[in-house]
Amino acid sequence: MVMRRSSAWRKNNLREIKKTPGRYFAILAIIALGVGFFSGLIITKPAMVKTLDKYVTEHKMYDFRLLSTLGLTDEDVSFFNAKEGMTAEGALSVDFMAALDEGEEEIILKAHSVTESVSLLSVRQGRLPKAANECVLDARMFSDDVIGTKIKVSESNDKDTKDLFAYDEYEVVGLVNSVHYISYDRGTTGIGTGSVHAFAFIPIEGFDVEYFTEIQLWLPHDFEIYSEEYEDFISSREEIVKAALEERADLRYKSIVDEAMEKIADGQKEYDEAYEEYLKEKADAEKELEDAKKELEDAEKKIREEEEKLLDGEKKLLDGEKEYLEAVKEYEESLADFTQKEKDAYAALDAAKQELQQQRLQVESGISQIEKSGVLEQFAQLTETIASLKEALSMISPSLPQYQAFKMQLAQAEVALQRIHESGALVQYEQLKGALVQIEEGEVRWEREKEMTVQMLEEGKAKLSEGKIRLDDAKAEIDKNKKDIEEGKKAIQEAKEEYEKGLLDYEKGKKEADEAFQEAEEELAKALKDLENARKEVEDIPKPKTFILDRTYNQGYASFENDSSILEGIGKVLPVFFFLVAAMVCSVTMTRMTDEHRTQIGTLKALGYGDFKIARKYMTYAGSAALIGCVIGYFMGTKYFPMAIWAAYSMIYDISSIAYIHDIRLAVISLAVSFLCSVGVTYVSCKSELLQMPAELIRPKAPKPGKRVLLERIPVIWSRLRFVQKVSIRNIFRYKRRLLMTVLGVAGCMSMVVAALGIKNSVSNVVNDQFDNIMIYDFNIRFSEGQTSAERAEFIKTYKDVLSECAFVLESDIEAVKGESIKTVTMVATDDPNITSVVRLYSKSGNMPYPSDGKAVLSHRLAENFNIAVGDTITVRINDLETADIPVEGIFENYMGNFLFMTGNTYKAFFEKEPSYQNAYASTDKEDLYSVSALLTNDDSVASVTVLYDLRVMVDNMMESLNRVVTLVIFCAAALSFVVIYNLNNINITERAREIATIKVLGFYPYETEEYIFRETLILTAISVIIGLGLGKLLHQFVMDQIRVDAVSFKYRILWSSYFIGAAVTFVITFLVNLMLRKKIDNIKPAESLKSVE
Amino acid sequence: MDSFVRFENVTKEYRAGDVVVTALQGVSFEIMKGEICIILGESGAGKTTVLNILGGMDTLTSGKAYLGEKEISLLNKKELTAYRREDIGFVFQFYNLIPNLTAIENVEIVTQMIKDPLPAEQVLKDVGLEDRMYHFPAQLSGGEQQRVAIARALAKRPRLLLCDEPTGALDYRTGRQILKLLQDQSRNNGISVVIVTHNSALTGMADRIIRLKSGKVVSIKENERDLSVEEIEW
Ligand SMILES: Nc1ncnc2c1ncn2[C@@H]1O[C@H](COP(=O)(O)OP(=O)(O)O)[C@@H](O)[C@H]1O
Ligand SMILES: [Mg+2]
User: Fold this and answer.
1) What are the residue boundaries of the structural domains of chain A, listed by start?
2) What structural domains does chain B harbor?
3) How many helices (H) and strands (E) does chain A have?
4) What is the ipTM of this complex?
5) Which of A670, A822, B173, B202 is 20–30 Å from A921 (CA)?
6) What is the pLDDT of residues A1002-1053, one digit of tens each?
7) Which of A703, A723, A998 is opposite residue B108, by nearest beta carbon?
8) pTM for the predicted model, two decimal places
């Protein structure tokens, strides 16, 4: 029985939901929205904190970094390690210039030693280094194609830095994230551009050092980061650690001083020895030189002697030669004489001979004539004939005839012979023959004479030859002597040359020796001075300073807490608002419902149902909707809010994904609030209805009287209104709760959209303001070294066609200090008058001139952070030890980064060095910024060119993530507005079904009928939009106050378009809901609706 | 004399799923111009259905219905709305005033809607509410509310005034006053009036009485001499 009844009861309830899905949905949706918003906003911070906590715990992030100005040793590490509940590891870090690839620009890396028990690395790509010459790089700054390449320790590093590295290059084996770098910030450095590009981790073996720069301490604990427990824990440990660290540092100081003193003593000894050796060496060298000198002198003497001898010889030779020449002359004279004589002799001989010959010739020709004439033969013949004839006669008797012939013949022959005799021819012939003999005798005499002459001549000749031979001998001797002398001369020349060389060598040797001694002396002096200095230095070794840095000194860790709180502020306001609207929606809905059920309730009461049982029906209705809504809202909110917020922050933080957390307390609170807003509100708003007597309930409720509104007092307006308008206006003010619900919801929507878009406006305007109004240059040109004024002029001249403006500056990141807090500020020092054409300084009250000498101007964000006013000073770190207080002359508007501007003189005065103009801010009129930057980069003196437009792109990317949050908020706002408008319309339509039917019967066209309901929502929307304008501005202000992003200062600004979009969104939702509910109005059949009493 | 309202064999069926309810079955009648016609019948007889069809609030299943030369049964939805707007005045049992408008504003709903209405104040004076013009319905008694409703109906100079149980929610005396008002208005302005009632005592004031029973016309009777409201008793 009970079962049956309660199941029927439940069915009744279910039917109620089916009958009024719109209302049920409205309650469910508004609760889901409220809970989603609430839980989402609340959970985001813990979720983010949990995310970091998980990351930090998993990677054993150090709790303390211990630093000592004297460095720390292995013993120090062991000392801390030995302590209870502490894990310590020594670590090293050094900034250096690294070259990644040939030709590429060098970058500044911070090299850390890999720690193995503290501050573990999280490998994103590749692996951890194994060998000492391997390294892993910053996963944020490098992509995985860097794995396998090598980073080189650039030559441009100073020696001390280079010496710290055991190798020249390290192979990249992986990409990592490190707890040292939770956010994108990589810190500043004293080298190069002043800002660290990325980090690198190298095994400790990859460094060549004997000490650590820090000890990282990890204390195992279960406290969540940022929690009070953790902070208490840390501060309780800090004292202990501090004392211990100081003690260790003192020990180290002592040992350093002792070691140094020992070294100095060694040095002194070494010096003394060196000095001794110097003296000895000097003496030796001097003796050697002396010997050499003597030898040279001997040689010189000898040369001189030889030379004298030679001169003598030469003289003798000359004499000999002269004699010889005379002899030659004599000889030649003799020879000539002789030759003449000879010639004469021969001539005489020849003459004699010729005469002889002539005589002979004459004789012979006479002879020959005679012979030729035949006389002789005739004579001979005749003689012979006579002889023969006489004989013949003698023999022959003169009787014979012949005789007589013979005697006659003889007579004739005798006559002929006589005639011959008579002619004289024979005498002549005989004479001739005698002459011939004489001639022949002459000839013999001539021959003899000739022989004598020849002999005589031969003798003369021989004599001459002898003389000649003698002369030739003499000549040979002379020549020999001459040659000897030449040789002697040459030898002397050589000896002389050798001597000269020897002398030169000697002199050179002497000079060298002198110089060497000089040098040695100087060196020794220097060594002595060094020793002095070292002694002084040791005396000056500062007492060690120690630092204990907890996690709050980690930029990322510190800013993360801030950033995770971004929604906290909103979280305080908006959920309350959402729940308020939820409560209103429930109240309005449930009131309407019980109103409708008046009779039914009365009847049930009359039938004996208890108040509670009846009330429970409505509370169950609202409660079940709230429960479902709460569950949906809780899960959606706790998932999508952190997700959306994380989408924005994951660009800043190097943590891969957000941890989703569930908080029972939050869930319970959400549920409790949901029930409060549904069940509680239902009870309160329906109590009066439910507690009435059944009789009262069964009677129709006295209709709520119409009420006059203020506007009616102005008949001019009122009388002009059409009745639909009048009805709408009166209706609006008839149900206060509905009015409130609608206005809250819709104005809320409007204001959230406006605020969300306003945040975007404010953030995007930062970029525009920054780059269109303040930093109006296009390029930041970094030169490889400071530019002289000539180089600057040359550069400007070279690029005057492409660069419209160019101002040379000193730009450096330095640290500004105020109490405990440190902020990085970009210091710009320049005397370049062009600076005002590339950087516009203006304060809230207008333009601001460039600061005067001795003063600086500061960007307003830093001024606000450090609470610095005009006339105050700002403290900046000049180096590790010193700070300077620079008077602040003005505070200028600036939205990105912190800047400190000053003149070159100011810089010189405070930093005690000449400003080095290594940067130039330049603008161009050209369209293509990147071709200009490429052109500039190609200049040999230019190291790098930053195109400021890139920063815009970067911020645009960040805007992209902000868009998600904005979209989320707009979506929720739209949903809120939707639910509220839907609920209002839904209730109004059912409540006024009768009125609608009536006017339909009266002949209203559909649009007029719709207007009757919708005009009201439109007016309400309009009112809400107007309220939302102001509310949105306030909300925007409030939310912007909550958003704290370091280095970026937002200008609170909402564009008109944002208001417009807000209004448009709000109206569109209203129109949309109206469109959806048109059918419901159309479906009201007048004939049916008018039948019954309400 | 030509009929002003004419029903020819009108049948009306309501269909709710498989169930068919026949509200009217072959109903035919005529009403002359300027007549006061009372449709009489028990609850559920189909009186309201007739009125709704006549008033253009409902369509018929078969047959024809005319107002003057206009065939109502042929009008589409939009024309029906225009027809209600231009030609018909309604008076309901529960007045159906807009609670948020004063008496005069409730009349103005109509006067603002059409071209040539009677002045709202004039009509309200005619129905005797010159003193209550600026009161809201909740501040008026039932009779007064019904007067406002009648004023609203009359203000548009309807060709036909339809009244569904106009006295149903009123006490006797007030009911009489309302009927008197209707009769006077009809007589003075020559408006045809159809009054639906289950109270047969009212028949005396009518020119024509149509009796319905279970969706069928039982009888149509023309009164020779219609009584003034003062003369009838119920
Ligand atoms: N919308 C409807 N749906 C179904 N039946 C209806 C509807 N309207 C009226 N009826 C039926 O039609 C018949 C006539 O109703 P009606 O004209 O209202 O009677 P009455 O004479 O009391 O005014 C009744 O039986 C009623 O049940
Ligand atoms: Mg009826």
Assistant:
1) 58-252, 262-539, 735-765+950-1094, 785-940
2) 34-59+76-231 (3.40.50.300)
3) 29, 22
4) 0.90
5) A822
6) 888 888 888 888 888 898 999 999 999 999 999 888 878 776 565 667 778 8
7) A723
8) 0.66
